[in-house]
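Input record (Table S2, row 256):
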Amino acid sequence: THFGYRSVPKNAKTSMVGSVFSDVASKYDLMNDLMSFGLHRLWKDLFVMSLAPTADMRILDVAGGTGDIAFRIVEKKRKEEHYNKKLLEHGVEPVVVVDINEDMLQVGKERAKLRGYSESEVMFVHGNAEKLPAASETVDAYVISFGMRNVTEPEAALVEAFRVLRPGGKFHMLEFAKVQNDVLQYLYDMYSFSVIPLIGQIVANNRDAYQYLVESIRKFPSQEEFAKLMIRAGFQQVSYRQFHQGIVAQYSGFKL
Ligand code: SAM
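Output record (S-adenosylmethionine complex):
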């Protein structure tokens, strides 16, 4: 064991992911703030800014959970000129959140209602990233934020992303990545292997869920490795940029 590191067998991943997110759904947003010192808000803001969403864009927010990304997209769409007129007259494209976990979706729906978003602006759909409930070549932008790490077979999710995107459509992913600085990596390990499970225990009463989180970050492909998986799935002009020395990276690629 390394800083209390315990391993979860791969075949247990799907059920583990299920129980992790059901248990933490109600505390999910608070936990993100605590664990990342609020930084996840900045990463998500920067991520959505680069999507440049418009009212007519068809966007799928895969593993969208409680709606953090979808709501930011709706806010951006609302800033568009004549948005309200479009909404009333011929409608706008709703952001479609797809998630495998009903409890996360439920929290998302409640948050959307509280924020005053209508169903024509954001929709919550139950579904699996590896078998998306969307027709081929219908989506302008595929978005996945801190979700790919939890998918059992990321390669299968990439093939699905490629299938649902229209030619010219763009793939966008935000995910934890490989820290590019040894000192920061050391501090990050200390923090993530000891402090995060402890916060998980105290706040969400679920140490294992947050142990799993830390472990899944460790196991996820590096920036270069993931970019290769994207290329293998058919994406072109694949690129990534890093936030905070690679704690998080944003990937993009086109289906051409
Ligand atoms: N995108 C949101 C955000 O950035 O705050 C939520 C991210 S949360 C860390 C990961 C989400 O992935 C959970 O809501 C979980 O239910 C979902 N998930 C895990 N495996 C999935 C799959 N195979 N298909 C769809 N969603 C999945």
